[in-house]
Design brief:
- The protein is 78% helix and 0% strand.
- The chain has two domains: 249 residues, MetI-like (MetI-like fold), CATH 1.10.3720.10; 219 residues, Orthogonal Bundle (MetI-like fold), CATH 1.10.3720.
- The two termini are 43 Å apart.
- The protein has 23 helices and no strands.
- It is globular, with a radius of gyration of 23 Å.
- The longest helix is centred in the C-terminal third of the chain and has 34 residues.
- The chain is mainly alpha-helical and 468 residues long.
Length: 468
């Protein structure tokens, strides 16, 4: 509920008010979702630790820091961190609903009613499917996350499933414990499908068939929302940044740790890149089918949304069982199962991002191309791929970043002798090597920031080329 409430206020502020600096706020609000949740958790833990930032830098009393530290290592701490992590996703879905709404009813209502009344009587009912859909999706993601609860020592079902696999090697026990969790999350995906229907839940500004509707909700509301933006960005980004700054004081340790971990770094990039390429290659034809066909689209859409409901441990268990087949047994010593599992886990994001881009392309362009050359390869090469280049870039970026920071699947599927950076962070954290953990978290944050900037610049360049 916290993510939905914050997401609703932030989305309305971005889409229905004339607040300045919208582009900057959109970028800042997206970053918390790109940062892995376990880094959020480690950063907040360091912030409230006995010799952490709150005490050593700000000079806060030790008793206050200890109280906050105790609250962090509880269910309340898990809820707060998952709220920070899921708020950007809720904001994107609700903002998409506001962009897709016609706005004609709101414009007519503004002639007779004050803006705040229009907001509650017309705007919110028109985006009720997106409100319900965002709550269901964030609930699924929160239920399946195990890294936050694991670090904060709160017992949840995903942790017990992971223990059955990694500690007791009990595949049947892990599968049995996964059934109720998967049943709940799959039911939530079914409800999401029923609520959303054929509506898009990811929509870009270029898809709006009208100019953006804005109305004044009063200076107090604008001041409150601006303060909420700044507070939300600060709460989401300040602890990881402070964690980063605290690591910079150990320059020699940084160079030594990164040099010792270059094998894990290259392997992590290879896994993330491979899963991103496969996800984009599979997602493109699926997204094209969903955007151009009506028959069986609901069924296909549900099938490719279902991986969101599968726990990472259950997905890894399925890959392990497939590898036990005599025909595929030789794949167990390779990274192919891990790449495929990561691809399947984040495939829904690639499909929906590509589908949003395909909705921007006028079908008449394909019909005209079909008159001159009926081949599919001709339309794909000269029409779709050039126009889809920004969407392909964003889809690859999202799957790459999410795969880069994923912990649950590589922890169970990487072959012997291999290790990804998140897995190394997880192992070092349990050994008490806090300095090396901080350095590797710094590397992930630096990588996410660098790739985000490069992708943003490339996306802007692609859009400029298409507009010209």
């Amino acid at each position: 509920m916290g993510a939905i409430t914050l997401g609703l206020i932030l989305a309305i502020t971005l889409e229905r008010t004339a607040i300045s600096g919208k582009s900057l706020f959109q970028i800042l609000l997206l970053l918390p979702f790109l940062i892995p949740p376990y880094i959020h958790t480690l950063a907040w833990s360091w912030l409230f630790a006995g010799e952490g930032f709150l005490v050593s830098i700000l000079g806060a009393p030790t008793e206050i820091a200890q109280t906050l530290y105790t609250l962090l290592y509880s269910r309340l701490g898990v809820i707060c961190i998952l709220t920070i992590y899921c708020t950007p996703l809720a904001t994107i879905i609700i903002a998409s609903g506001l962009r897709l709404s016609s706005g004609s009813g709101e414009e007519a209502a503004l002639m007779a009613r004050p803006p705040m009344s229009v907001l509650f009587r017309h705007t919110l009912p028109s985006i009720s499917p997106h409100l319900a859909g965002s709550s269901l999706i964030t609930m699924v993601i929160s239920m399946l996350n195990f890294s936050v609860a694991d670090i904060l020592r709160v017992h949840v079902l995903p942790i017990e499933i992971f223990i059955q696999l990694s500690v007791f090697y009990d595949q049947f026990g892990a599968f049995t414990m996964s059934i109720p969790l998967f049943g709940i999350t799959a039911t939530l995906i079914v409800l999401f499908q029923r609520v959303m229907g054929d509506k898009q839940f990811i929509c870009t500004r270029q898809q709006q068939n009208r100019s953006a509707l804005t109305y004044s909700l009063g200076k107090p509301f604008l001041i409150i929302c601006t303060s909420l933006f700044i507070t939300s960005a600060t709460i989401s980004l300040l602890p990881p940044l402070m964690y980063l700054i605290g690591s910079l004081s150990q320059a020699q340790e940084i160079l030594s740790t990164i040099f010792d971990s270059y094998g894990e770094i290259l392997y992590t990039f290879a896994l993330s890149g491979g899963s991103s390429v496969v996800a984009v290659c599979i997602g493109l034809p699926v997204a094209y089918f969903l955007s151009r066909r009506r028959t069986w689209s609901a069924t296909i859409n549900f099938i490719f949304l279902l991986p969101l409901a599968i726990p990472g441990a259950l997905l890894a268990l399925g890959m392990l069982r497939v590898n036990d087949l005599p025909v595929l047994h030789h794949l167990s010593s390779t990274s192919i199962p891990c790449v495929l599992a990561l691809c399947l886990h984040f495939l829904p994001f690639a499909v929906k991002l590509l589908e949003a881009e395909l909705h921007k392309i006028d079908v008449k362009l394909e019909e005209i191309a079909r008159l001159f050359d009926g081949s599919v390869t001709h339309r794909l090469r000269y029409i779709l791929l050039p126009l889809l280049l920004p969407g392909l870039t964003i889809s690859f970026f999202f799957v790459f970043i999410l795969s880069l920071g994923d912990l649950s699947i590589p922890l169970l599927l990487v072959p012997p002798g291999r290790e990804t950076v998140p897995v190394k962070i997880y192992n070092l954290m349990h050994y008490g090597a806090n300095d090396m953990v901080a350095v590797l978290c710094l590397f992930i944050l630096f990588t996410i920031g660098s790739i985000s900037i490069i992708t943003l610049l490339w996306y802007k360049r692609c859009q400029m080329r298409l507009s010209n």
